[in-house]
Amino acid sequence: MKVLVSDSLAQDGLDILKASLDVDVNTGLSEDELVGIIGEYDALVVRSATKVTARVIEAGNRLQVVGRAGVGVDNIDVDAATKRGILVVNAPDGNSIAAAEHAIALMFALARNVPQASASLSEGKWERKQFMGVEVTGKTLGVIGMGRIGRHVARRARGLEMCVIAYDPYVTGDLAEQLGVEMCELDELLAQADFITVHVPKAPSTVGMIGEREFSLVKPSARLINCARGGIVDEGALIKALEAGQLAGAALDVFSAEPPPPDSPLLGHPKVVATPHLGASTQEAQVAVAYDVARQVVDILAGRPATFPVNAPIIPPETQAQLLPFCELAEKLGQAARQLAEMHIDQVRFSYAGQLADMDTDLLRALLIKGLFGITEPRITLVNASMVAREHGLRVVEEKTEDATPFANLITISFQEGDEERVLSGTIMRGEPFIVCIDQYWMDIVMQGYQLLAFHRDRPGLIGEVGQVTGRHDINIAFMGVGRLEPRGEALMALTLDEPASAEVQAEIEALKDIYRVRMLEL
């Protein structure tokens, strides 16, 4: 499989990719250039420079994953990727400490006028009184957004003997207590904080989050730090607040346009400390994010789940390990149900019994749906499975129960065909996926190869007659099983064949006395 790395990536990440994949490094590509070559690749690895637009996604006929060596994915059209079933992953842990430390560094630089004083001294001046600063000890730091980076900042601020308050509607009281942080509403934070640091992702709901109204609430002595994303702070409103004395200063690592235009009033402003998006620019962070994204790309292309999926549910590693044996089972159950059905399915029920009932089964649901629609919709992944089901008018109902007797775990698909309920149940035995129930018939069928199902009335000699038909057509029977409700009653014969039975062979078997339906499954 081929991977395109279109932005600079630490050698550690490249080495991981090259160990098992064919890797091309081609940086500085325009959108047209990227569109022209992306169809050759199964994965794309970027940082912040490459713009993965809808055009790029559409041209990526083979793309399975786009990996971002960093936290933000605002340079990737995640919606377009989701529709195509392309997984987007990032590396949120790798540069969290670097970004948090940079926010603290900017806070100190802002508090003590470090860059302005350095520039003045470089010009031969000695202006000690002009650069009078403030201490951070005992001051109140307001943290907007308590994700990974925000939490790292809060911990470090507590170590500096600062009082830390925070705004994040998704943080529980227990976590805030563990961090020694007081949670409050945004307006309250703005009014109380001496230093305000922003750590929220860029999204439609956060663009312009700090604007004129918000600046009107802060203390004139307050200072603002933004190491998150440009656009979260309204730059026009920021300039007005600085000029009007509503804000004592600002430290910015990010801008609405990067790089900002040379005539930007923020550059060179006496109350502004500015750096060129250096939040993740440490040697340690670059190695960490490269490692994290490369490891995920290798795993995804090998059929293993991602650690940090952006557009799919996050499945904890311990749950992934427990679910992996059931992944093949789930997809093949979906395939079998699709082939067993004789009518359009409007609603399907997925049931998970036994130990599976206590796990996150999002991955299994996606694979069951993939099996159901694998022929008509070949690009179904954990990312877009539920979307595909909705587009096809399929309602999915899920249920869980602890009782899987007599098995440790059981996955069941059931759906209605007229007045008849069709049921398929499967489990893992001896390390292999088995069908253990079809409709009301219990049996053990290894889920591989060709399965001929003959619904019939149980009578002496019928199995031999079926064998004669397959023998005449040189079709070898590898395994045979029968499930029945009672002697000489309704029954199901399942034959595992080495070769597929043609439509003519199936019709010949169905024409035998007491056989009333034949279905062929290819797994």
Keywords:
single chain; 523 residues; alpha/beta; Rossmann fold; 60s Ribosomal Protein L30, Chain: A; 3 domains; seven-stranded parallel sheet; 22 strands
Radius of gyration: 31 Å
Q: How many DSSP H or I helices?
A: 17
What is the total domain count? 3
Terminal CA distance reads 25 Å
| CATH class placement of the largest domain | Alpha Beta
The order of strands across the largest sheet is 8-7-6-9-10-11-12
Q: Give the low-pLDDT segments.
A: none
Residues in β-strands, percent: 15-25%
Give the beta-strand count.
22
Averaged pLDDT, please?
Answer: 91
Structural class: alpha/beta
CATH architecture of the largest domain: 2-Layer Sandwich
Structural description of this entry:
The protein has 523 residues and is of the alpha/beta class. The chain folds into 3 domains: 110 residues, 3-Layer(aba) Sandwich (Rossmann fold), CATH 3.40.50; 179 residues, NAD(P)-binding Rossmann-like Domain (Rossmann fold, 3-Layer(aba) Sandwich); 206 residues, 2-Layer Sandwich (60s Ribosomal Protein L30, Chain: A), CATH 3.30.1330.90. The protein is built from 17 helices and 22 strands. Strands 8-7-6-9-10-11-12 form a 7-stranded parallel β-sheet, with helices on both faces. The chain has a 6-stranded mixed β-sheet with strand order 14-13-15-16-17-18, with helices on one face. Strands 2-1-3-4-5 form a 5-stranded parallel β-sheet. α7 links the parallel β6 and β7. α1 packs parallel to α12 and α5 packs across α7. The chain starts with a strand and ends with a strand. The mean pLDDT is 91.
